[in-house]
């Protein structure tokens, strides 16, 4: 990613966290990024259009962790456990950023771009499901693409319930993870 664009994104995250989305201005963002205001508009049309890039950065962080920690040799049920751990950890660590993303995207026309941001995430998970199906690990009637989207939604929503809405402790998070894995296991036919 271009250094100036990255600086804008990082500055936007900080400005949105400090001032909130409504009170933040493009001037605040460019000041934090150390660039001219005109440079901002080379990359983004408005302060809210930065939300898509922030969402992309967070999705890339999740995928990076998945690629680093989910090894092909692992059995599918173990891959699923690792993904659940990663998503819960990322949402816990970046709960404020995820809250900003959801608030910013929900208040704009950019919400429909979400699937494009998640495309590589969905593709990775779908591939894992296809392999598990070919290996006879999951039910034969499973549709990998649709199931990947559903599972990602399930895992992220469960993590958000714990860390974004109620700020519950790690013990409750462990119980929620266990329930997500049991639910997913039954749905997948594991």
From TrEMBL:
Cell inner membrane in keyword set: no
GO molecular-function terms, A-Z: DNA binding
Keywords for this protein: DNA-binding, Repressor
Residues in HTH tetR-type domain copies: 2-62
Domain of life: Bacteria
SUPFAM superfamilies: Homeodomain-like (SSF46689), Tetracyclin repressor-like, C-terminal domain (SSF48498)
Gene3D superfamilies on file: Tetracycline Repressor, domain 2
DNA-binding interval(s): 25-44
Name under which the protein is recorded: Transcriptional regulator, TetR family
Organism: Lentibacillus halodurans
